[in-house]
Amino acid sequence: MERMFFFDIDDTLYDLADPFRKTCKDYYGDRTDPFMEELFLAFRRHGEVSFMAVENKKMSMKEMYCYRLQRAFAEHDIKISEEEALAFQKTYQNYQHRISLSADMKNFLDVFCRKTALGILSNGPAKHQWDKVRSLGLLKWIKEEDIIISGDVGVTKPDVRIYRIAEERGKGKELWMIGDSFESDIAGAYEAGWHSLWINRRKRTTQDQNSKPDEIVYSEKEMIDSLKQIVERERK
Question: Strand locations in the chain, DSSP E?
Answer without folding.
Answer: 3-7, 117-122, 147-149, 174-179, 195-199, 215-217
